[in-house]
Amino acid sequence: MRDKPHSLGLHLRQPRLLVVSMSAIAPLPPTIADPAERHMIGIVDIFATEALRAQDKEQMIVAGFNASGTLKHWFMLDGASDKILFDIDYLGAVLADPDCHYLAIAHNHPSGNPHPSRADMRTTRHLADLCNETGVKLVEHIIVGSTENHHVFCQHSG
């Protein structure tokens, strides 16, 4: 996959076509009652699992949705074997978009263990605070492990 230079000096990967059966969406916990949020989380769940599983370095997907749940922003950040250098300024451009009402993020753990680290929990709290300040709702943070199971924790982190 070739990288394409972005006007901000970032290198974005050219998207690749991914065909996924909608029946592959795993049932989401009943604690997520809002059908629009369930839909957004399902979309990120499918694509993040496909894109991030079995990678040898951490990567993060950030997805921004409008008020009706339509995907408006999607980007992937590369990291190292155990961390992602998160560009908060780049994320700020997404959060500043008046059409962005919801945000979902996903990242992988190359170790295969899908449980959140302390750094994962800190990042999620920091990101949730940033989203709240900009009027965007963080609907989920998904951690993709090496198996079919992954750990989804926004609804559990309080």
> Which structural class do the helices and strands define?
alpha+beta
Question: pLDDT under 50 segments (min length 5)?
Answer: 1-30
Rg from alpha-carbon coordinates: 15 Å
- Going across the biggest sheet, name each strand in turn: 4-3-5-6-7
- Beta-strand fraction estimate: 15-25%
What would the principal axes of the Cα set say about the shape?
Answer: globular
| Number of alpha- plus pi-helical segments | 4
Description:
By secondary structure, the chain is of the alpha+beta class. The protein is 30% helix and 25% strand. The protein is built from four helices and seven strands; from the N terminus they run E-E-H-E-E-H-E-H-E-E-H. The chain has helices spanning 35-52, 88-95, 118-134, 154-157, and strands at 3-5, 11-13, 59-65, 71-78, 102-108, 137-144, 150-152. The strands form two sheets. A five-stranded mixed beta sheet has the order 4-3-5-6-7, sandwiched between helices. The protein has a two-stranded antiparallel ribbon with strand order 1-2. Strand 6 and strand 7 form a beta hairpin. It starts with a strand and ends with a helix.
